[in-house]
Amino acid sequence: MNVLQELQALNYLAVLVATLASYLLGFFWYHWGVFGRCWANSLSLTKEEADNTQGLGWAFFISLTSGAVKALWVAFLLSLAGISGVLSGALFAATLAVAFTATSIGYYNGFARLPSRFTCINGAHSVAELALIGAVIGLFS
After folding, report:
1. Is residue 44 within 8 Å of residue 50, measured between CB atoms?
2. What is the DSSP annotation of 8-53?
3. How large is the angle between the packed helices 86-96 and 57-81, nearest 10 degrees?
4. pTM for this one?
């Protein structure tokens, strides 16, 4: 396997679309009318505090960058595994999220004594985000 050749062969339009889809999912997922109220309440935040984005520019940048890194790696792994299609891509990426991300969020938050609602919302977002990324990458393959 030549990693450089594999990276050059990736569909970067798919990676870009998956990155943007990931970012938009976060916007909707944490919207007050979806999981935002429960998420904020689990941290004892009011709606006004949760809606205040002042000083969060770096967090938004990291969120977008994180989505791009995840989309690139999912595309790379799907390519290596020879997996294509929306459902196969989504299932593969969701499995990665459960195995690596959601489980880590669970024990990080457990030791930090954060509320289980907070952990469940963030863990489920992680799985949904990678499933969406995998579906988008799979759609383009």
Report:
1. no
2. HTS-HHHHHHHHHHHHHHHHHHTSIIIIIHHHHHHTT--HHHHH--
3. 120
4. 0.94
